[in-house]
Amino acid sequence: MGNLNVQLFMNNTTIPASHPSVSVTVPPQYKIVGGGARVFYTGVGSLLTASYPSIDSTDVYRTWNAAAKDHGQSDPSTIAAYALAIYDPDDEWDVQVVNNTSDPADHPTAAATLPSGYTLTGGGAFVDYSTGYGQLLTASFPESGNTWRASSKDHLQPDKASITTFAIGMASKTGVSLANSVVHQDSTSVEFPTAIITPPSPAFTLCCGGALDMWAEPGNMLTGSYPDGTGGWIASGKDQIDHSPAIIRAYAVCVQTLD
Q1: How far apart are alpha carbons 84 and 136 in whole angstroms?
Q2: Range of 154's domain?
Q3: Cα angle at 111 between 248 and 94, to 5 degrees?
Q4: In-domain check, residue 207
Q5: How many domains does the chain have?
Q6: From the centroid of its chain, how far is CA 161?
Q7: Is the confidence at residue 1, as pLDDT, over 60?
Q8: Could you report how far apart the first and last alpha carbons of the chain are, in Å?
Q9: What's 219's DSSP letter?
């Protein structure tokens, strides 16, 4: 058994904006296996709308994108994008990304499932609210060992939108076997819930994490789902204008080689 060579990359904005966005691109010979996002607000709040991978001209996923928005009241904020990537100069790993888009709804949800033979390493999502008041992420998390699910909601004003969910997985081109472990930790029920989870053992390498905000009306939404820089994962959320405490669940997706 052994650890994968997974490196963490981060990029953040420095100028506050009402709809902040940022991307981080990993160097050549790296392949993204997971990523996250965190919005830094100072006022009433800014909440996540996107944390997902995108492909480059060589058909390799090397960029992670993050976006957020204020909602109901102005609060220009900054945001950070995080990418976790394997160093693969000899092209020994095949990284697959599968996506699935929901129909427009007040509270859309979509799940993306990997094909047989691929081990889930991470996932992401973005909300397409381009023509309305806006929706906010409430969940982006590993639903099972090969499926990623994400959800969002409108808040304060009705606004239907669709959500696209991404599942990221990898398979060896040289016959190496992989195993993943998905673990989670819940917060207490508060207006600004935060939960932290670490890998189950040093034998596992963190590849990504997720967040599930277990909200009730009027709503509590995500402000962060990101690596803590020491091998763990943090999930955070908040209510927005209307009082609405909730429990948040942080997930860690960890992988080890078996050969």
Answers
A1: 24
A2: 6-257
A3: 105
A4: yes
A5: 1
A6: 19
A7: no
A8: 6
A9: -
